């Protein structure tokens, strides 16, 4: 006849060889009703893969890849359960409206991640967003972008596990850093994001910024007189990629030894 019979059971029962005969009956429509862990562990099983639907029987914490695997069945539901998406910031942000589910109401950052100020605002707006213990979310952007987003990010900036990295050009760091309210931001670091050349006096200003560094692959060249180049401390000089004279000059033997 044209009737169908719905068979709803756990992974263990559906994959039990003793039940193979029941699964071979014409008109059987299989629904897997089990935990996310059990369904995912059996995802490659032919019987489970051929099921018409998957219904989770308990709340679960999933990565984006695991969520998309569950959604690959024709029907995927989690009625009465709470789904937590726990992943990197990139994967949390990659969740599309089509992949969202009513049960997906909690979002956790599960690994160290770096995002722009705009992306941080998006994460903050996610339902029950939280940063797992031991995980750090670094907001890395220009001085202007972070300062301009400070009000919108105020809640997130007060959260444990947040660090802020100001990554900007040499010109912007020197012109804007003095007016920035550094105390508003947790775990501050400053990065020169591009190549640059400046004086020894400006190097002293930069090196005094919180956890200052030059981005990997970028160079900070210092050009000045012998007097100012030799006055640099060891730590200050180490920040520079190169030291050079900006004009003809005269040096003592002791100064040459320093250079």
Task: Please render the helix and strand layout as text.
Layout: E1 5-9, H1 11-14, H2 20-23, E2 28-34, H3 36-41, H4 46-49, E3 53-56, E4 60-62, H5 64-70, E5 75-77, E6 83-87, H6 89-94, E7 104-109, E8 113-115, H7 117-124, E9 130-131, E10 137-141, H8 143-148, H9 154-157, E11 162-168, H10 170-176, E12 188-192, E13 196-198, H11 200-207, E14 212-214, E15 220-224, H12 226-230, H13 234-239, E16 242-245, H14 253-258
Parallel strand pairs: 1-2, 2-3, 3-5, 4-6, 6-7, 7-9, 8-10, 10-11, 11-12, 12-14, 13-15, 15-16
List keywords for this structure.
alpha/beta, five-stranded parallel sheet, four-stranded parallel sheet, 14 helices, 31% helix, 27% strand
Brief account:
The protein is an alpha/beta fold. It is built from 14 helices and 16 strands.
Helix content: 25-40%
Shape assignment: elongated
The largest sheet, given as strand count, sense and whether it forms a barrel, is: 5 strands, parallel
Q: Could you tell me the strand content as a percent range?
A: 25-35%
Query: Which whole number gives the mean pLDDT?
Result: 93
Structural class: alpha/beta
| Secondary-structure element string | EHHEHHEEHEEHEEHEEHHEHEEHEEHHEH
Radius of gyration in whole Å, from Cα? 29 Å
Span from first to last CA? Answer: 94 Å
Strand order of the largest sheet: 8-10-11-12-14
| Helical segment count | 14
Model regions low in confidence, pLDDT < 50 over at least 5 residues? none
Strand tally: 16
Tell me what you see in this structure:
The strands form four sheets. This protein has a five-stranded parallel sheet with strand order 8-10-11-12-14. The model has no long low-confidence stretch (mean pLDDT 93). The chain has 259 residues and is of the alpha/beta class. β11, α10 and β12 form a beta-alpha-beta unit. It is elongated. It has 14 helices and 16 strands.
């Amino acid at each position: 006849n044209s009737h169908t019979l719905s068979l709803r059971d756990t992974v263990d029962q559906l994959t039990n060889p003793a039940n193979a005969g029941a699964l071979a009956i014409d008109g059987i429509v299989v629904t897997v009703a089990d935990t996310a862990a059990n369904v995912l562990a059996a995802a490659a099983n032919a019987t489970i893969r051929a099921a018409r639907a998957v219904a989770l029987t308990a709340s679960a914490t999933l990565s984006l890849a695991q969520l998309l695997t569950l959604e690959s069945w024709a029907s995927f539901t989690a009625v009465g359960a709470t789904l937590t998406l726990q992943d990197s910031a990139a994967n949390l942000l990659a969740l599309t409206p089509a992949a969202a589910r009513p049960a997906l109401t909690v979002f956790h950052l599960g690994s160290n991640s770096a995002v722009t100020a705009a992306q941080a605002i998006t994460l903050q707006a996610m339902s029950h967003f939280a940063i797992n213990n031991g995980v750090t979310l670094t907001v890395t952007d220009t001085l202007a972008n972070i300062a301009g987003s400070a009000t919108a990010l105020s809640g997130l900036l007060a959260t444990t596990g947040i660090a802020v990295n100001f990554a900007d050009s040499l010109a912007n760091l020197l012109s804007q850093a003095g007016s920035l309210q550094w105390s508003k931001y947790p775990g501050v670091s400053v990065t020169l994001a591009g190549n640059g050349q400046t004086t020894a006096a400006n190097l002293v200003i930069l090196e005094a910024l919180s956890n200052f560094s030059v981005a990997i692959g970028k160079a900070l060249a210092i050009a000045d007189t012998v007097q100012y180049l030799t006055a640099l401390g060891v730590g200050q000089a180490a920040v520079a990629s190169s030291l050079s004279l900006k004009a003809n000059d005269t040096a003592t033997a002791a100064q040459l030894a320093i250079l």
